[in-house]
Design brief:
Layout: E1 5-12, E2 29-32, H1 38-45, E3 49-57, H2 59-64, H3 66-79, E4 84-87, H4 94-111, E5 114-119, H5 124-129, E6 134-137, H6 145-160, H7 168-171, H8 188-200, E7 230-235, E8 239-241, E9 257-260, E10 272-274, H9 282-286, H10 294-302, E11 308-315, H11 323-339, E12 344-348
Parallel strand pairs: 1-3, 1-4, 4-5, 5-6, 7-11, 7-12
Antiparallel strand pairs: 2-3, 8-10, 9-11
């Protein structure tokens, strides 16, 4: 590595001062030196590093041609012999955030250089890439451009020098879910009591365990006419077609399966299985209707209590599900149900 750290800065078409949405199809491009916010980045880097080039790409082009965009952009990064790639900040812009995360991950894996991206911690790009790369939390608005670039520069210099990186709260990056052992002055019980006393006294304290963030949601309105309703069956109990052809995981799920049931009146034990690591599936395997009551729903449809049963069952295994994966699976299932005109859902669990 040279004495002066060589930095390449990635921007989208807007921050590269090419244009707005009308220029979203601009392909991968490189220009020597700094552009736009790169001036503030160079100032934050000081004399220890130089922004030798700025690479940019339209958000639409990147989203529609990701592999091509990454390959061309990485070629420019390599041509400029970069030691560090800094991408963004993208703030709350989802497409831009995803592009920042993707190009940083690729540069880290393929070129072996240090990378730092910047975006709001709730940006979809942060959710996709925070475990793979360092992402500085920029907040949602451009008002925090300068302080965000300062944190990105400081973190990037440390990474480029192969220096030890501190905790997220100290360095300003989004938590990556990585745990490291350290020696504490007090035993766990003493620290827990100290936090409890501080909480009771109304004093500030910091928990050593970050609680998961759960998104809130409003309950759906009641069905107006049950006799005309199309009801779907959804389960996190691990119902699968015999043999589990979609290879649904019994725990820590990352996807779901869609099981067609047109013409099926009851779930037979010889045609369906329960695959789940969180409960004893013996009872469900003997009679899958205990897990997903298709037989009862067919009876209710015949009696006119409900309008119809949806033609597919959506199923996943819910054991030890990561919150992010569960949210993604839920959204994907909901999108399919909405598109199919489903008006109500019965969600069965274990």
């Amino acid at each position: 590595m040279s004495t002066t750290i060589r930095v390449v800065h990635y921007l989208n078409q807007f921050f590269a001062q090419i244009g707005g949405e009308d220029k979203g199809d601009v392909g991968p491009t490189v220009k020597a030196g700094v552009i736009g916010a790169g001036r503030a980045l160079q100032q934050a880097l000081g004399e220890e590093a130089e922004v030798v080039a700025t690479i940019f790409c339209g958000d639409n082009f990147f989203a529609e041609n990701q592999d091509q965009a990454i390959n061309e952009l990485l070629r420019h990064v390599a041509d400029y012999k970069a030691d560090l790639l800094i991408a963004g900040p993208a703030f709350e812009s989802g497409r831009y955030g995803v592009a920042c995360g993707a190009i940083c991950q690729a540069a880290k894996q393929k070129l072996g250089i240090a990378t730092v991206a910047g975006m709001d911690q709730d940006n979809v790009g942060a959710g996709l890439y925070k475990k793979e790369i360092y992402i500085v939390d920029s907040g949602a608005t451009i008002a925090r451009m300068v302080p965000t670039l300062q944190r990105m520069a400081a973190l990037g210099l440390k990474l480029a020098r192969r220096q030890a990186i501190g905790k997220p709260a100290d360095e300003g990056y989004v938590t990556r879910g990585i745990k490291r052992n350290e020696i504490a002055a007090k035993r766990p019980a003493e620290r827990a009591v100290d936090m409890l006393l501080a909480k009771i006294a109304g004093k500030p304290f910091h928990s050593e365990i970050a609680p998961p963030k759960f998104a809130g949601g409003k309950p759906a309105a009641p069905l107006g006419d049950l006799k005309r309703a199309v009801i779907a069956l959804v389960t996190d109990g691990g119902l699968v077609i015999e043999g589990n052809p979609d290879k649904i995981e019994p725990g820590r799920p990352t996807r779901f399966t869609t099981i067609p049931i047109t013409g099926v009146q009851s779930l037979g034990a010889d045609q369906y299985d329960a695959v789940h690591s969180g409960y004893d599936t013996a009872s469900a395997n003997l009679d899958p209707n205990r897990l997903v009551p298709l037989d009862t729903m067919r009876e209710l449809a015949r009696e006119g209590v409900i309008g119809a049963v949806h033609e597919f069952i959506h199923s996943t295994g819910g054991a030890h599900a990561a919150v992010e994966n569960a949210v993604q699976i839920g959204r994907q299932i909901a999108d399919q149900l909405k598109a199919a005109g489903v008006t109500g859902v019965i969600l069965t669990s274990t």
